């Protein structure tokens, strides 16, 4: 049932939202249908058209609830024709409305934290408990966050629709940013959350096969995720140069490169595709750091991000010029950003300025939050 739930939850929920125009009602009905399936299917077997079965069961339960409430009596004539027997149609007759659901969950009227939570709940099917655990808040806090988001969707009349053409690029950027944020939450060790972001990326490329940037984002996540087993040795962080490449996942590497090629073939030149190209080059042996610097030049032009400039400085150092890299760091600000100080420590260490390097490592250690990073920085302090 877990596999069925993962495969079908987003499709079933999106269909029900399309029918009822009410995310809360649709979610309650979908949850009831999946509960009934979990009880019944082990005895009767999984239906041939399982999605149709789930949609019909959920829809009929919701209609029963509406009748009991009698709050939509004036619209009952719209619902009654939909009350078909589950055997009368198959899965192919059900329109895939997940794209509409994606854009509803990531509407700019909602806060970013609400967008993330709704996307994980509605598209990924994660429970409130799982989402709360992932973002280190209580279950009650996450329940309130989700409830407020759904209430805002209803009160503000946020449409269940793909945005019009003139708004589409900006809205798609917001969707990509939400999925990437979910992935980044998992990158520090929560591999299950990283896998969930990849699942959402696969959904998006399926729904928007001709848009290059979703392919770029999926490629980027796959290429990073393929190296996850090598990034940690117990509680110790392992840098790229020291990673055991036999631990990298070749299937995910191949899938990431294929998504990158697909995005480039579609004419994409956006930031996610550029980042994916950098990640792909970092899996080669030897790594072409000069080419990576060129790609970072492109990424700086696209984003003007101080963090991207920091990563470019790392590539400059790896290409053989730590002194220039250090000068770049000195222009960035980012005084409260851990990785500025840990990178500065590495560059100073390479340049033989050990006292200054220790100062930088100490500041990075003050800002570090994860155990692997704190252990890594402590070792650097001890050996510098």
Can you tell me about this structure?
It is a single chain. 70% of the residues lie in helices and 1% in strands. The chain has 384 residues and is mainly alpha-helical.
Task: Break the fold down into its secondary structure elements and pairings.
Layout (H helix, E strand, L loop, with lengths): L1 H19 L2 H22 L5 H20 L6 H4 L18 H8 L6 H11 L5 H7 L4 H18 L11 H20 L3 H17 L4 H14 L2 H4 E2 L2 E2 L12 H16 L5 H11 L7 H15 L2 H13 L3 H8 L8 H13 L3 H14 L3 H13 L1
Antiparallel strand pairs: 1-2
Radius of gyration: 24 Å
User: Order of strands across the biggest sheet?
Assistant: 1-2
Low-confidence stretches: 76-87
Number of strands: 2
Mean pLDDT rating: 89
The percent of residues in helical segments reads 55-70%
Number of helices: 20
Q: SSE order, as H and E?
A: HHHHHHHHHHHHEEHHHHHHHH
The N- to C-terminal Cα distance equals 53 Å
For the sheet with most strands, the description reads: 2 strands, antiparallel
Q: Which word captures the global form? A: elongated
Q: What would you call the structural class?
A: mainly alpha
Taken as a percent bin, the fraction of beta residues is: under 5%
């Amino acid at each position: 049932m877990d596999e069925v739930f993962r495969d079908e939850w987003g499709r079933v929920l999106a269909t029900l939202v399309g029918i009822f125009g009410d995310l809360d009602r649709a979610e309650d009905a979908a949850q009831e249908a999946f509960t009934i399936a979990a009880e019944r299917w082990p005895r009767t077997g999984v239906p041939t058209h399982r999605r149709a079965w789930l949609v019909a069961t959920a829809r009929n339960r919701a209609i029963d609830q509406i009748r009991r409430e009698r709050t939509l009596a004036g619209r009952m004539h719209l619902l009654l024709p939909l009350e078909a027997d589950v055997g009368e149609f198959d899965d192919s007759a059900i329109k895939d409305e997940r794209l509409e659901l994606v854009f509803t969950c990531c509407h700019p009227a909602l806060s970013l934290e609400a967008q993330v939570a709704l996307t994980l709940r509605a598209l990924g099917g994660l429970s409130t408990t799982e989402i709360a655990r992932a973002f280190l808040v209580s279950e009650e806090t996450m329940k309130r966050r989700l409830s407020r988001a759904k209430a805002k969707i209803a009160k503000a009349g946020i449409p269940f629709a793909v945005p019009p053409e003139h708004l589409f690029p900006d809205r798609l950027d917001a969707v990509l940013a939400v999925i990437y944020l979910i992935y980044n939450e998992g990158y520090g060790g929560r591999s299950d959350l990283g896998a969930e972001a990849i699942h959402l990326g696969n959904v998006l490329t399926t729904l928007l096969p001709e848009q290059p940037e979703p392919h770029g984002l999926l490629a980027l996540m796959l290429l990073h995720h393929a190296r996850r087993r090598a990034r940690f040795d117990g509680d110790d962080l392992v840098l790229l140069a020291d990673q055991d490449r036999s631990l990298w996942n070749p299937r995910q590497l191949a899938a990431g490169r294929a998504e990158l090629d697909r995005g480039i073939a579609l004419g994409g030149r956006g930031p996610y595709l550029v980042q994916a190209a950098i990640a792909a080059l970092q899996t080669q042996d030897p790594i072409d750091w000069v080419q990576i610097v060129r790609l970072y030049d492109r990424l700086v032009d696209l984003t003007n991000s101080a963090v991207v400039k920091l990563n470019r400085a790392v590539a400059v150092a790896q290409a053989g010029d730590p002194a220039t890299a250090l000068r770049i760091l000195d222009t960035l600000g980012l005084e409260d950003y851990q990785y500025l100080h840990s990178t500065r420590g590495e560059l100073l260490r390479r340049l033989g300025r050990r006292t200054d390097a220790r100062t930088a490592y100490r500041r990075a250690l003050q800002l570090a939050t994860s155990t692997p990073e704190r252990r890594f920085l402590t070792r650097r302090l001890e050996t510098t």
